[in-house]
Specification:
The complex is a heterodimer of chains A (386) and B (243). Chain A has 386 residues and is α/β, with parallel strands linked by helices. Chain A contains 18 helices and 16 strands. Chain A has a 6-stranded mixed beta sheet with strand order 6-7-8-3-9-10, with helices on both faces. In chain A, a hairpin with a 2-residue loop joins strand 4 and strand 5. Chain B has 243 residues and is mainly α. The chains are: A alpha/beta (386), B mainly alpha (243). At the A-B interface, helix 2 and helix 4 of A face helix 6 and helix 7 of B. Chain B: Its main location: membrane.
């Protein structure tokens, strides 16, 4: 857990005082990733660096796991915080192995232990130990160096990590790969992480919480979904962009808006029954046919059911697409657009039908929070003044 | 093709020239004259090397710590102006430095070593300072953020990364030192300068060359020697000659 209490930094510059961080109060619960987000110069890096005292706070306190760090010796404090800097900063005079083991060595681990740890870290970041440990940083690609930077910060297994735009220097494709790897690692490691970014998409993808900064002040601190659904003021709103509703598609799972009521027919039903059911449920153009294991087997279209006689098993069409309960809405929307559908059947892990998702449900879910905000407490002047 | 044959022809020409120079020197007795100076050369060379080793190692011992101290953040205010003073110092001709040190310390080895020491000190200090200041700030931040003490940062990060530049400074400084030692003869410290200057005075080119050629060879040797040491000592990851 990291808690910042009224943390403030004022830089004295020749042009006068610059307030880089202004009474920042926030708390990152144990095991969560908090993204510090905001435009250039808003104080993200300064806030981050006050935690490990690379920047000395003007006032305020930092608590780590409940302990006030003010009294701690700087070196001890830093050795227990993993630090990944934006410029990677691997030591070019040392091999990869020496780079990774540097903190364990500082902490006085014995040789066998830190050597084993280096191999373990390499496995974790998916690089072949025998091929890489004896190389020098200059012999690695940018993405590989970035991974080593993360490995170095993690080597001594610190409970807390600070990362300043750790994936900023990599091309978008590799960045996505490293982000995914990192999230997978985090699921096992459960570190408490402060992570600076100026990329909204990265923030939404990586963060359990997002802290939006503006000119040294913490403007909004909430979960990515809350942030997108209910931006606190016009600044946050414009920073998130016009397409913020679409960004939310990534965050909402099908499970959250599925309606478990879905009318279905079986292969042995007649088309007459099908038509009746379509009308009963008020479906516009088709109904789902399921097999005896309740899996989607086909669809019966309304027009066909009206004009033809016979059994469903002889007159169905292929199911255009299904979504899984754990898919996100982005995938669901994409499938709907691709297949020109207004609804899709949803299945669970076993593949049995458990409901449907409609375009209407999606749009109203995305709009609901936002409309509620606009309805009640939207007082822009007050929000901005804060 | 033509280029290669021209090169071949040049090579052959050089070989012929060397051969005929040999034949000429043998027949004219120049070689014997040189051999006549051999005992002098041996004796003076030892003196010469001794002057270089004394002044050079003193300079290294003082210059590197001085460069390190000046590069510390706490010294930032004074360091730049001090480096300016040192830079002005470099422009004073070594002969003048020797003359000055003679007027304080008299004649002999001591003022010579001191004068050479001063002349060698500056390039090494400058390179040590510049090398340490030139270490990528990101490395320094990473080192600090990881929890290294200032001393660990210096020994494990700053010095290894500045080492190549520091060695370059030593190479220049000591090569110049060897080439300057002949001047020490002028204040009575001996060395190969004795043959060179006496040879000039006596219009005796053979005598002069028996001082000058070994001096040049010494300079080349020390340059190569330090290059080899740098090759071995500077870590592979930051050693351009081992990239
Ligand atoms: N050492 C310093 N001396 C003076 N002012 C500083 C110093 N470091 C940062 N600042 C100022 O403090 C403010 C916040 O800087 P900070 O580096 O925290 O921004 P940031 O949010 O990380 O921006 P970016 O996204 O560009 O990295 C800026 O106005 C900057 O100019
Ligand atoms: Mg920054």
């Amino acid at each position: 857990m990291i808690r910042l209490e009224s943390l403030t930094k004022v830089f004295d510059t020749p042009k006068g005082a610059v307030v880089a961080a202004d009474h920042i109060d926030m708390e990152v619960p144990e095991g969560e990733i908090c993204i510090l987000l905001g435009p250039s110069g808003c104080g993200k890096t300064t806030t981050l660096k006050m935690i490990n005292r690379i920047v000395k706070p003007t006032s305020g306190k930092v608590f780590i796991n409940g302990e006030d760090t003010t009294g701690l010796d700087t070196q001890t404090l830093r050795r227990n915080i993993g630090y990944v800097i934006q410029q990677i900063g691997l030591f070019p005079n040392m091999t990869i192995e020496e780079n990774i083991t540097i903190v364990p060595k500082l902490l006085g681990w014995d040789k066998a232990k830190y050597k084993a740890r280096a191999r373990e870290m390499m496995a974790m970041i998916a690089l072949e130990p025998d091929a890489f440990l004896k190389r020098f940083p200059s012999e690695l690609s940018g993405g590989q160096q970035q991974r080593i930077g993360v490995a170095r910060a993690l080597a001594a297994d610190p409970p807390v990590m600070l990362m300043d735009e750790p994936f900023g220097a990599i091309d978008p494709i590799n960045r996505a790969v490293i982000q995914d790897e990192f999230l997978k690692m985090q699921q096992e490691l459960n570190k408490t992480i402060m992570f600076v970014s100026h990329d909204i998409d990265e923030a939404i993808k990586m963060g359990d919480r997002v802290a939006v900064f503006r000119e040294g002040k913490l403007v909004q601190y909430s979960t990515p979904d809350d942030l997108l659904a209910a931006p606190k003021n016009a600044f946050v709103e414009s920073f998130l962009g016009e397409d913020r509703a679409l960004k939310r598609l990534n965050l909402v799972k099908v499970r959250e808006i599925v309606t478990d009521e879905i009318g279905t027919v079986t292969p042995s039903d007649t088309l007459e029954t099908a038509l009746a059911k379509i009308d009963d449920y008020g479906y516009q153009n088709a109904i789902l046919m399921i097999n005896e294991r309740k899996q989607p087997a086909g669809i019966i279209s309304r027009s066909l059911a009206r004009t033809t006689k016979g059994y469903c098993r002889d007159h169905f069409q292929a199911v255009p697409a299904v979504v899984d309960l754990d898919d996100d809405l982005r995938k669901a929307a994409s499938l709907m657009f691709a297949h020109d559908q207004t609804w899709l059947p949803c299945v669970d892990k076993a593949g049995t039908v458990c409901g449907q998702i409609t375009q209407r449900a999606m749009t109203s879910h995305l709009g609901a929070r936002y409309r509620a905000r606009q309805g009640d407490d939207r007082k822009p002047s007050a929000a901005i003044k804060e | 093709m033509p280029i290669r044959s021209i090169k071949g022809a040049l090579k052959a020409l050089v070989l012929f020239a060397i051969f005929f120079a040999g034949v000429w020197s043998q027949s004219s007795g120049v070689i014997d004259e040189f051999l006549w100076y051999l005992p002098d050369v041996q004796y003076l060379m030892v003196q010469h090397i001794w002057l270089t080793v004394m002044s050079g190692s003193l300079a290294i011992l003082v210059a590197i710590p001085l460069g390190i101290v000046l590069s510390r953040p706490k010294m930032a205010n004074v360091a730049e102006s001090l480096m300016q003073v040192l830079n002005v110092g470099t422009t004073i001709p070594t002969l003048a430095v020797l003359a000055l040190s003679m007027s304080f310390l008299g004649i002999g080895t001591v003022p010579a070593v001191f004068g050479l020491f001063v002349a060698t000190l500056l390039p090494i200090t400058r390179n040590t300072y510049a090398g340490l200041k030139g270490v990528n700030p990101a490395l320094m931040e990473a080192a600090a953020g990881i929890g290294m003490s200032p001393m660990q940062r210096l020994l494990k990060v700053e010095l290894p990364n500045a080492l190549y530049v520091i060695f370059a400074g030593m190479r220049t400084a000591l090569t110049i030192n060897v080439g300057t030692v002949p001047l020490a003869f002028l204040i009575g410290a001996g060395g190969l300068g004795e043959l060179i200057f006496t040879g000039i005075d006596l219009y005796d080119p053979v005598m002069m060359l028996s001082g000058a050629i070994p001096t040049a060879l010494l300079a080349i040797t020390i340059d190569a020697l330090i290059a080899i040491i740098a090759f071995l000592v500077v870590p592979r990851g930051v050693n351009p000659s081992r990239a």
